[in-house]
Amino acid sequence: MESFGNLVRSDFWFEDGNLILIAGSAAFKVHRGQLARHSEFFNDLISLPQPQSQPDGDFPQQQLIDGCFWVELHDCPSDVFYFLKALYDGLYFKPTQASTDFPLLFAVLRMSTKYLVEHLRQRCLARLDRDWPSTLAGWDRREQAATDELGRYMPRLGCAHPVLVVQLALEQGLPSVLCAAMYDLSRYGPSRIKIGTVVPSEVAGCEALVASLLGEGKQRGEKEMVALSREYLYRTFQGREHAQKYMASFIEKELEHRKPSPECTYRFDAVYPSRPCLDSFYFIMLNVLRAVGGIAAGRDADPLFTLGQAGEMLTRMDFSEDGGRGRGRQCGLGMCVECRKEFEAVVRRARQEVWSLLPRWFGLQ
């Protein structure tokens, strides 16, 4: 990287370029046509009549940089780098380990919105909607993608930390992304919610530029933390509490005091009417209580997951006849078809209700 004057020449420096962008102390020599083709802002800017450079006139030669006119951008140099990289090389997101794409996505979304590059903005929004969906079906696909073949749930490999996404959604005015991110964050323990996360490192290709622009007192590799504001920390805790209350109410209403279906197959049993179904509901309730308490999967404030687990128990065939001691054959719950159908419908309605209530729980409505 070569410097001239007080500017640092970036990797985006084309010898045949005809316009220099300056962001902070970084300079980028690019092509007017490339910017004008993709950006309405730059197209309008470049269309303005350009002053003629004259040695003794109103626009002396020293106003040019490397023989080119220049435009100062009030943006972070790394944001400009990612933006130009997307314009020149295309915008590509990794299919795996996608959380490392967040600095790129954040920068390009911010810059494409500001400088009216609609196709890049739509690419970023589509990616955000995949990771932070606006529908329950999209959320279920996201959660399934975050679970490997061994059943391990690892969302941070595919999605950025929700604190970062909350900041992005607030800055860019993306309410559906904000709601999904706050719900994701609320599933953490209270101390982890409060601490926040480390600001991600720069995407490969930008480290040299960032290293050249480090301010005094900031060392390369130094960790920088980001956390929620007091207002959104409170809203996240409030949403978490609402989620736990909802599950407590569901357990009491739909499991603890649940009656068999009027069409229950076992309703005419003389000794214990509908016993297989009642025993199954009790077994589901115990497992839901374990999930709510964080014992089963460490997800004590995740009603969508817990309700989904309750529904999946109806079709699972890996329960043991001897109560889990490992010596009996595997089987499913003994619930009849009619009771099963009724409870499946209850679970579906409850999950849809939870999804619709999330904006209110987090104070977004």
Structural descriptors:
single chain, alpha/beta, 2 domains, two-stranded antiparallel sheet, 9 strands, 50% helix, elongated
Short overview:
With 365 residues, the chain is of the alpha/beta class. Helices cover 50% and strands 9% of the residues. The protein contains 15 helices and 9 strands.
Describe this structure as you would to a colleague.
- Residues 17-96 form the BTB domain.
- This is BTB domain-containing protein.
- The chain has 365 residues and is α/β, with parallel strands linked by helices.
- The protein has two domains: 8-228, Potassium Channel Kv1.1, Chain A (2-Layer Sandwich); 245-362, no CATH class.
- The protein has helices at residues 32-38, 40-47, 77-89, 102-114, 118-131, 136-145, 155-158, 162-172, 175-186, 190-195, 207-212, 230-256, 275-292, 303-312, 337-361, and strands at 3-4, 7-13, 19-23, 26-30, 69-73, 197-198, 225-226, 319-320, 330-331.
- The chain has a five-stranded mixed beta sheet. A two-stranded antiparallel ribbon has the order 6-7. It has a two-stranded antiparallel sheet with strand order 8-9.
- Strand 3 and strand 4 form a beta hairpin.
- The longest helix is centred in the middle third of the chain and has 27 residues, at 230-256.
- It is elongated.
- The two termini are 49 Å apart.
